[in-house]
Amino acid sequence: MNRTVAAVLALVWIVVGVVSLVLSLVHERWLLALLAVVAILYGVAWMRVAVHGRLLRGRDLVTPWRAPRPGADEREAG
């Protein structure tokens, strides 16, 4: 259930971000384009929550290559 909610949130944020990005580029609204990119990145973060099955720590968002893999034991991720 929680993974489903995270996946739906990710899908919504990514779709809204892409649509906003396209519209902002067509109408040359650069601040909206920046916000659209942030929305897409927020959707990607929710997708990672859905994959990992847990909320991410701030450190996991800043350095995703060092985050533990889904299903890996915390001791192995060290």
Strand percent estimate: under 5%
Structural class: mainly alpha
Unreliable segments of 5+ consecutive residues: none
| Number of separate helices | 4
Number of strands: 0
Describe the sheet with the most strands: none
- For the residues shown, what is the average pLDDT? 83
Helix content: over 70%
End-to-end C-alpha gap: 29 Å
Global morphology: elongated
Q: What is the string of SSEs from the N terminus onward?
A: HHHH
Radius of gyration: 15 Å
What would you note in describing this structure?
By secondary structure, the chain is an all-alpha fold. It is 73% helix and 0% strand. The chain is built from four helices and no strands. The protein is elongated, with a radius of gyration of 15 Å. The mean pLDDT is 83.
Layout: helices, strands, pairs:
Blueprint lengths: L1 H25 L3 H23 L5 H5 L11 H4 L1
Helix pairs in contact: 1-2
Summarize the structure.
With 78 residues, this protein is mainly alpha-helical. It has four helices and no strands.
Q: Which features would summarize this protein structure in a list?
A:
78 residues, mainly alpha, 4 helices, 73% helix
